[in-house]
Protein 1
Amino acid sequence: MIDTQKLKSIPASYSRLGWTLLILGVLLTVISFVINPKHASFGLIMTLTFVATVGIGALFWVGIEYVSSAVWSTPMRRPFEFISGVIPFLIILAVPLLFNMTTIFEWTHRALFKDDPALLVKAPYLNIPFFIVRTIVVFLVWWLFYYLIIRNSRTQDSTRDQGLTTKNIKLSAGFIPVFGITLTIFSIDWLMSLTPDWYSTIFGVYLFTGAAVASMAFATIVIVKLNEKNLFPVKITPDHYYNLGTFLFAFSNFWAYIGFSQFMLQWYGNLRDETVWYIPRIHGSWAVVSITLVFMQFVIPFFFLITKPAKMDPRRLVFISIWLLAAHALDIYWMVMPVYNPDHAVFALSEVAFMILSVGILLSVFSFKAKGNNMVPIGDPKLQRGLEFHI
Amino acid sequence: MSERLYGITALFDSPEKVLAAAKAATKEGYKDFDSYTPYPIHGLDNAMKLKRTYIGIVTLIIGMTGVISLVTFTWWANSVDFPMVTGGKPFFAWPSYVPLMFEMGVLFGAVSTVIALLAIWLGLPRNSHPLHDSEFIKKISDDRFGICIEAKDPKFDQKRTESFLRTLGAEKVEPAYYEVQSFTLKQLVLDPKFIISIIVVAAVSSGTVYWGLNKMLLIRPWSSLNDQEKVLPETRSEFYPDGFAMRPPVEGTVARSQMPYEFTENDLVSAEKYLKNPLLPTPHVMQLGQRDFNTYCSPCHGYFADGDSRLQGQFPNPPSLHTDSLLIAPDGLYYGVITNGFQGIMPSYARQIPRDERWAIVWYLRALQKSEHPEASVAK
């Protein structure tokens, strides 16, 4: 019942578009580095965060599918696996930043620490050698789980060995807590430490909600687009779409919940170490960005996705997925850029490069990974039940 | 007792057949028919071409009503009826209302959904159904699947409908009758059985809640918080013969922390004249004074005693403490004012600030005055 003839097809236009955007993005990034290295470095942090959250978020969804033994998503698991293929390349994005840390991170200047007891306490954590070690360890751990889980999933296509599913369930059960810890470390290192005085215990969760929405949105776009062109070898029904839409809806709400919890507690506590992060973001043109973000990532998707037909309609799903990806980009922009310029919002070549490069990396890696692989896990014992899924 | 035809019922022995029958009936043009199954069957709503329920709209509207009423009430209570500064926030501090808005939205939405669901499903005020207690429904609640095409359908014709249902492979096709009287409003709502059952349910549920909250929680072992070995207010101590739980201080002594104030409340003149600051301006005293000044005095007087209140006009602004007459006023005046309040506007701080700390505040205030008027010789 699965047409094996079509299993390896992916339109060439995808990889063409992906490579074009990738090359253009790299060019723009290099140019922006020549024009303004500091601004460009912040732009590269945004790119790194965007690509990392989408990639590791996709692997998180794969892990969740294994751990919960979900069947509905099995026919659509491969796109998630392909997206998580960006994980090995994250280090390439991080390297220019690791050589450039003194221009980005305020805490690399030890002189600041003298007058600030709050920073002095953080000195054992915030120092360049430990930062580099952490970054490498985090990326290595991600790559390790990515490699093992994806390899088992691919091997199953040819061997049809059910034991590999059991193996992956165990691996995923290990991966998910590790994912929680490493993503928190990533968020503290690359985003929270930009404002070294600030701390928020919920920040890792905040980044996780954004990662979950963005990776789900990106996967939804490619699944719907491939299915529209009949390139998916199996039939994806509106019932499958309904679940994708439900996850988009749920995690957009979860994002708002976590984001608001963080804001309200820090606003209410009114302590210097906490409000220092929000003060630039609620004044001047950054306030406009903040309010736009709330509408982009929560209010509009909430009303857009709340009805059942909206979650089942592929065209509306693609629209809101693109919308939510843009919202995630704005979210990262909002987290990173007020550090570069606290007075007013900035938009220059670096921001353009950020968006083009991010999409370019994701799309080219996706099409590269999809080219030689089956679009559905044909060896997975859950596949048949997943195809018959209805709500 | 007049009987009326409700519809034609048909029983099937498998869910596939009832699904096919529902499809066929829809195709044939019947609209007023319903399927009866012992458990939910996938795809039946599509086969019957049921319209989407409007219950979500009810939830949304009533939930939003909850949110809006909460916002209106808190706004009115906190900024119109009883404006009170809480945590130094504005009166209408909307971020702190958001969790309440969420909860009220969920509460109103959930309760209204349940009520609307019951109302739609039962077709209130109907409290029974013409097929209730029939042989047909007994089979349904056992192991059969059924369809009933109702007589009010415009395409309904007893003979044609019966033969149509037979062609679908029904194992039993029967007309269903009901007594007209038992479905009049009077019979439905004023039925003694119905009313009594409602009263019994209300009495049992409210009685259970009342008993649970007011009685059960006072029985051991739930009552551990109530059973404490202490003298409660308005009761006699059995330990001391005089019946008081609090002991009076030993006669002729004064506790260190409870040195009485020497003069009457309004006698600032004596305070000015006789009181001297017993502390020396050591760094420790100055720091203590600064801490207390910033905590207790600065909200109204400002951090530099300029009278620039941080309270945004919610209280009358006090005058600056840098005026010429206050610069030369002796320490005793400040101490007296902190202890007793001033002119009914500034309250007494005797309860919040211990005696020594009041004197420390006076020292810190002197330092503030000196910092702005280095040339003036402030009194002691």
Protein 2
Amino acid sequence: MTPAEIADRVRARLPDLVVARGEVTAIVDRDELLDSLTWLRDHPALQLGFLSSLTATDGPGSDPRFWVVYELRSVALRHRLRVKVGLSDEDPHVASVTSLHPTADWYEREVFDFFGIGFEGHPDLKRILLPDDWEGFPLRKDEELGGVDTRFHGAFHPPVDTRTMA
Amino acid sequence: MRDLDAVRSEADAELREASTGEIRQETMIINMGPQHPSTHGVLRLLLELDGETVVSCEPIIGYLHTGIEKNTEYRTWVQGIAFVTRADYLAPFFNELGYCLGVERLLGIEAPQRAQILRVLFCELNRISSHLVWLATGGLELGAVSVMLYGFREREVILDIFEAATGLRMNHAYIRMGGVIMDLPEEGPAKIRHLLEQMPGRIDEFETLLDDNPIWRERNVGVGLLNAENALALGVTGPMLRAAGLPVDLRKDEPYCGYETYDFDVPVRTEGDAYARYRVRLEEMRESLKIVEQALERWERTPGPVMVEDPKVAWPAKLSVGPDGIGNDPEYLRHIMEESMESLIHHFKMVTQGVRVPAGEVYQAVESPRGELGFYIVSDGGYRPHRVKIRDPSFVNLQATPSMVEGGLVADAIAAIASIDPVMGGVDR
């Protein structure tokens, strides 16, 4: 199906649609996320049952601040659809989709790890790539790029790019 | 000195006590990795064992996290290529291609024909070299040391081609937005032809060594089972999914770089075990050779540039491969330093400030040796990416480990993980 045809089929159920660069993006309310994903999966003409990717973006100062992005793919029908959920700065959490797509398990842990976004109903939401005692959420825009002190021979050394010759 | 009989009766009593006592049953927790020769880099598995049987398995990752995605937000769009190429370090061309195709879609440009052919050519060579590393390391893990030596020997031939063309054996930054950085060197076609002549016989050798090898079959047949339904639910793609019976390949499903015009098959097996994955990957090497042959033939009859003409996008410098790798061509340096102030200014602006990419978002997926390699790229209209997310197939496929090894023997866990072919650089990024 072409992006326009997909958009035509989806519009009745998910009216907030953007079609650009050959891709269809549906923006849904976070309370309707699970229902929408179930509907997209079960619709016989869409069959968007494969979660290709799940990630988030951060834009401080814009409303909403966070977008959680779901890339859906139909393996049988060879088309894609993107679903986005906006989350505010004060209350960044959304329902976990692990019950629909078991593959979301690690993705959601990754988004939690890097953005501090919560996923209700996730079986084991904890950090995945960073150490368990890490503080902060590095992919948020208000976290600067920079190294961390490393412990070597009992002493802490500053990151390489901030070291000065004594 | 104690009487020998007394010692004996004491020992007997102890034995009786022990044998009449309650039999204790407990599981053992074993940490496999992160420094373990058969965990493909720094993967750690928390295994709960009941004797030799795996009761539960939790993969623990992140030991190789390097913040590639965060770093790209602080560099120009072109510099991003040098970062993403290091994610899955066994498939650098695929990382570059996925990223560049995504940015090109945001820019609304398309690389010239000759560049598209070179991209296909290098990606397929890279697929073979990546599968060779999988074969070599996977063989080593199951005790087939000679397969390790043969695998790395053949890979060396391909890396020589890469080195001649890009100056580097890995992390090439060869594919750029708008094309590729330079054309094939003079000796390139001969080297590739040599490989095309040699490689089919070498794949035959692998098959002779392994296909009916009783130990290889014993270790792989029926091991690490994953059926198509579970694979899809877990997001597994690539050879693992094709070994479970689904002919899912982005080169056919969502073609890019003109893959729809090449003649090749998608090898499929239905068993869904480690042996089926081995067969699928060997067949894929043959199919890749077919594509390389066609691409080389097209390259010879398709003249033209390998980079878009638009000076606002194209890399300004002319490069050449020197004795210490790729660098600015001396002739070009003379031109900007001695002849043309405007060229120098243009060069400086393109290198330091780079390209401005219109605001928007794209998701671009390519078929890497391990499956769907996706790039979700968001631009806010500036000179740097707003967000680059790498959907690495190793990260997702590795998630299937528990369902593949739980209930099996701990020795089979090694074979199962080898058949996933995870690359930790891609998993942790």
Protein 3
Amino acid sequence: MSSQNVSRRFFLSTSIATGGGLLIGYSLSSSGLLGEVVRASRGSKPTADSQIPLNAWIRISPNDEVTLISSQSEMGQGIMTTLPAVLAEELGADWTRVKVEFSTVAPAYRNPRINWQFTGNSESTTGFFELMRTMGASAREMLLTAAANRWRVKAEECYAENGRIFHKLTGRTLKFGEIAEDAAKVSPPQNPKLKPQSEWKLLGRSLPRVELASKLNGTAIFGLDFVLPGMVYAAAMQSPIHGGSLSSFERESAMNLPGVIDVVPISNGLAVVASQYWQARQALKSLKVSFDGGPNSTVSTDGLMKQYRDALEGNSWKTVRTAGDALGEKEIAAKHDFFSQEYESQFMAHATMEPMNCTAYVTNDSCTIWGPLQGPELAKLTLAGMLKLPPEKISVNRTLLGGGFGRRLLVDFVVQAALVSKAVGKPVKVVWSREEDMQHDVYRPATLNHITAGLDKSGKPLAIAHKVVSPSILQFVYPPAVTEENDPSCLEGLMETHYEIPSQRVDFKLLKVGVPTSVLRTTGYGPNIFAVESFIDELAFKVKQDPYDFRRRLLKDERSLKVLETLVEKSEWRKPLPKGVARGMAYTEAFRTHTAHVVELSVKDNLIQIHRIVCVIDCGVALDPDITKNSIEGGAVWGLGVAFKSNISFKDGRTVESNFHNYQIAQMDETPPIEVHIVNSSTKGLGGTGEVGPVTLVPAVANAIFAATGKRYRSLPLSRHGLKLT
Amino acid sequence: MKKVSFILNGKSTSLETDPDKPLLWVLREEIGLTGTKYGCGMAICGCCTVHLEGDAIRSCVTPVSRVEGKRVTTIEGLSADLSHPVQRAWMEIQVPQCGYCQPGQMMSAACLLAQNPKPTDSDITDAMSGNLCRCGTYQRVRRAIHRAAEIGAEKGARG
Amino acid sequence: MKSYAVLAFRCALEFVGVQYFSNKAARLGRANDNQSERLTGIRTNRVTIHRFRWGLLFASCCVMSAYLCAQLISAHTAQPTKTSTEINEAKAIAAFNAAYSVLTYPRCLNCHPAGNAPLQGDDSHPHFDRVQRGEDGNGVYALKCNNCHQAQNRSGLNMPPGAPNLLANGSLDYTTPRWHLPSAQTPMIFQGRTPAQLCLQLKDPKQNGGLTAEQLIHHVSADSLVLWGWNPGEGRSTPPLTHDEFVSKVRDWLENGGSCPK
């Protein structure tokens, strides 16, 4: 996207935001409602009245404070550092002194790709990079013009660096704060000049995260920490059976308990409201309540998997992709030496470390929300409709998120907070206990993949046919993309591949199941690439080729090859291993990033000891290498949980797992050394990284276990086969 | 309701509360220190870790009556200015991602280092395997503990 | 004390023996004279009888003093408290086997594990979070037992169980938890022990923490951690015998000689 197009498209909306949305935000913040300071980044009080907006993203105060706006929610992926760093780079700001605040909900802050404000799908960097450059450059040129005017020199003779404007010829200088007011009066340029990558001072380096200090001294404010004066707390209890509803409750059984204010029905349950969360939670235990089971009261994992199996064995497939001859399974079998396998990925929970919560204050004519949200625009629109208020009266504000992983894209917990606040007429924080959170997640559904390939005499695949069975994952997050028969997110990783296989076909069956399903970190790539990269490895074994050689033969893309070569080098793939130690590899492009893993492990009885994990990624350019590495390392750990431990099961319409003792994730004693190597290519090929980490780790593990034992495991988690990580 | 008095982050603190209420919620809601986090409520995740007379207790299951007359330190009290070796190391190595579990990680790490100023990898595994991190920062936590041990030793050497 | 008792006993034996044999010699010497003497072995000779009676009295005193010493000694060792005439090996073994069903029940077994870590749950799976014994049985670093376990069970499923501290005077201290494993030195392993092995182990002061039989009975009756086994908190089952039954089985076992199954 060229800067010119971006400027034209967003010029109007940024000035609207400057004139409209931002000011609305300020008026609310200076009202009595928000007397409490929100320390979103470095504990700064927004000095709304003195800050001068140059556009929707940059405000400069006369005392030289530069405030950068983050449209994206911060959930550990570092985006509130990296995108503001792009602004700061172009602006020429002094990074050590910038402050970052979260934006309001306004058109200026929508992801340009789909014109929708959200944080997810690993497309914050890719979506906003060019826009941030343009906005930063635009503000810089406004400052330069204003300074040049004041000095009566040419703007081209001036430059910005470290928070100051300099005149090259005379050495005169002005601080940003000294010229900001004049700069705000300059018309934003149509085509601001972008700083070449060769001149980058901030990007491409590892910067300290803007919110790092607050995360080390206990001052960071997550949704669960946010306080409004006069706020009360609500402990939510929803129907234990998915899709069930509240039948009856005895209000009096809770009302006399300490601190209890009210018991409020919500859409599929109720909330006990009290002065303190602990009181609300205790009262919930004593409350007499009953639920109607609803239509799903017999749903079980066995029943669900039968549903999947019947779907896989049935007809009425939707063909979502064809390439070349697009041969199906039967045709491949008739024509070629063929190989067919099936893979299964499991239901999983998001299990963010910070349980679901949201704070709301609803009056007759306004609604203010504070919470750990990924989908603030969806929240705003939903609340406007539900409360029958105009959108301008809905203010949605974000705290830090203690993990998101896609769960907080939904707005169920936001709606609850608003409903309860409206009912009691006070600011309310709704909190879900861990058990409530685990059992009312909107789960990553299981996926069944059936893959068939036809090989030529040299063992090269000529045709590949996929059959995929999955419930929808985008349905609650971005409904416009989902039809009766298709959900594109379920097919990620299959619709495009770098493997040069002439005939390709993808058939899909969208299942309707009796449990709620949604996107979860790695979305469709996770299950599909587990299947594909296991399958490729099985093909390599079948034709007696080294897994790297087999893959390399199928690849032409330079970036793919470079990543794989780097992987082979860094993992010492060719070096013989001691007896009992084996390696597995996997490669793909996911979220526009090329990623590959090698896992080195040994197996004794059913105990798996991983010695080493090596990862190589090419995300175009790692704008902040350390943040990227942290994310990919963490992604490997996430992947270990997916591969070995994490599993959600259902019985009698309910989720079985309730806390971390039975929904298990990887822990420190199971974490081996992880190396991450970044290959930089070009900013034209910028890719996402937040969800990439686990994608090739999981099949690399399965492939390594095969190499070590000769046993192939095709369903996850591996604990179901008795395998245990040590 | 009962009066409970203890020393919190070096200051005498007294309040009327339910003596069986977990210390976690007293800290967060009655005293207003939200650095200590709620993650599981059953002492498995470690997000609620604080120090009681130097021991790394899990405040989500500790009744506030247990701290009567004793010294409690939360993440806010680890230092006034991020100068604790654990905080300095965490800063240098940029451990946190979302950061929600990190106060608990740091409090457990500080407890380890107080008892064992030069822990081995095995000691670190022994001490820290009860602190869950959904973002998977374990490798950095481990590096940071080694670094904190170095910083602590440097500090000690300087006197 | 022990050597005196042995000496006294041996004196008694020798004396009785000497008396008996000297009497016998005397009787034999007069065998033809007195048939009744022959039959009864009792000399009717007045002096001999007199000597014999005094000898017997002396021997008895030795036996008594030896017995008393033995009693004093038994106060410091796990010896049966009933007289040897009431020892009933089969009864003891049966009682032990019943007690064994409790000792190896998860409520006890989980904190008497074979390895370096406690177990938990009715299925005795490894305790979560890689919690370990530690040298002194109190856990290590940030994962010491009392870091999570309190002086009472916390209410709710999957919440940490707890037990109060036991003071020297026998009273319970609810301000301080007492939750721990046996030390690494004296691990008191129940897991994997056959009845024969466990029985010997429990009686051996070197392995049982230096307890006498009385003390062992007292331990199972009144120790706060043992009592916890019958008040373990929501979601945890109780052993197959009631606490009273269990105590009485332990008592029966020890008071019937403490015999061990083979």
Protein 4
Amino acid sequence: MSRIPLQRVLVEEGARAYPLTRRMMRRLSGPVPVFEGSGEEDGCLRKNTRAPSLGRGMDKKTLRLVAFPGELLKPCPGTGEGYICCGYQILNVGTNCPLDCSYCILQAYMNLPSLRVFVNLPEALPEIARRLDEDPSRIWRIGTGEFTDSLALDPIVGWHEWLLPFFDGRKNAVLELKTKTDRIRGLLASPHRDRIIVSWSLNSPWIATREEHKAPTLELRIRAAARCQKEGFVIGFHFDPLVRHPGWREGYQRTLDLLDRYIAPKGVIWVSLGAMRYMPGLKRVIRTRHPGSAVLDGEFTPGLDGKMRYFKPIRTEMYGVLRELLTAWHPNPGLYLCMERDEVWEQGLGWSPGSSEGLAAFLDDRVKKLFPAE
Amino acid sequence: MAKADRNNDPFPDSTAPSNPLRSFSKEPPVRVELKICDLDLENGPFCASFGRGLDPLLASIRRVGILNLPLVHRGARGDWDVVCGFQRLRVLRSLGVETCPCMDLSPENLEPVELLLAGLHDNLTTRGLNEVEKGMALERLSAFWDEATLIREGMALLGLPSRAPVLESYRALGEAEEALREIVAAGRLSMKAFGLLEPWNSPDRMEACDWINKLNLNFNKQYQFIEILEDISIEESRAPGDLLQSEPFLSLLAEEGVNRPQKTARLFEILRRRRLPTLDAAERTFRRRISSLGLPKGVRIVHPPGFEGTDFRLEVVFRNGRELRERVDTLYRTPGLKTLNVPWEAEGEGA
């Protein structure tokens, strides 16, 4: 992956005083111009308004350092309406990412432009620790990769410096760093491994090449995963979104071949599957920003939650094919579905956790297995 | 008349300090009698008329005469610019009238943008502007205002959402084919539908417009038609116009003895079958299975939308308890009911 192509950094009001800001400024000193304020005052940026115009103005070349005023740890909104969710917690360390995947939900979901890093994260950690400690019997599965890529900006931000020691030794929590990048230098340099899951978002080579713009190749991602695994990290994989495209079976088979070549399946905590789905508003953004995209091809119908999904037997078939490929790799890869219905689990994977609580228990068991209590 | 002193305005309006119309003096503009043949009624700098037939105004002027005098302004070279009232003057010209009294705004010393706004306000409060005229107005205003002001002030003035993509659509409309602009101006094609058509090649969008026109599709149907056609076109790597010029579309329009709503229904059936073949086949299988059950009269079974949910719905129409009982009894005895299932599974599997 090439350098992060930043054109400017904006230190927004209230962010200057934070130590993370100063550390980042030291890392960024050089060719990237730094401004203070929201960027509107001197006209260096378009107005910091809501709702970027059909996602066109995502302004991924501006990095804003922001003191986020709200809660940084929140439950994943899930989707409800009979779809089984995993009970994940999102640690909101920033929004948007420098990659430009055509299907990215953030194009429609995020209504503020630019890459944003929340520089008050280190100061928020004691409060997060208090919340985790309040509920010691619960397993907190926490991730930073929902609203941004967990590692894409790590060389600049240095999240690993704060987060890895924070989770190390906690008996009731794990942190999942989800990424499509190979930016693992910071992780490898850290002495902390405990309670950290590094996971990669994978797809077929066809989709990775055509739709995951600015992301490293699948082979680079998987080699980065192999390196992390070798260095003692627990790893995971996410096939999300699964896209039905010409030759999709062979395509996903090729990705599994790569996994087989580089990864020891025994050390994989879980593999999730999620068929392509989108909020109706995302369609026009994709058509506008990525005119050649194939992710909207195929038969989509409105789901009960209002999102467009592949017609049920189509996605059931896709899950079935991936299940076959993955269980041929390892009989128990910790396979689960993201936001799917009970009957789709049954038909696609041959079993169902029955409910969101059931799925959470399944994933908690995986955590206990891969991070055994001393 | 001197330009009004904003600071001495006895009726200051603090909510609209930048309103240019407040610069008018309290005295009425001067009335002048102008020769119509001396006025440019086609391309004046303030002209904001497009796609308007003169007939309704002609009938009105014939009946009651000119009620509001056109607004004019003397240009730098001494010639007259019409600020507002192009249509009225065109009607008078067509009626053979040689001169017309007009209100001269020149003594107000108004800036060009203020004249433009005067004309716009006059039109907005009387006849309104069609979509093409709104685009023309935005184009004219963009010569005086920056993008942010145009979005904030100009679009609000025209009753449009103050959003950049909307402005882009109106700008694109200005570049569109004359025929397409006429359809939009006449209100037969929505701006939302135009927004979908805008990136298409000219022959493709004109072909789609032709269908919309011929089938008189309402705004919702227009949007659906274009969106599904676009999906098929991308997936099949065929131009939309090319698709519409091939079977089964081609013969649909020519079909005789079929009225427009029937043709519209048929068009959407074809589009849906092409776009969602598996779902369409499932729905047909389901209908066939239901029909083969021989359900009692007044009883209907409806599948979940798109088969996404799991719950089917039973509808029973009845007049009284006795009839309900009869229908439920007959339904209970209906053979094959237990085998009812989702269409992609063999009958009886899920019972």
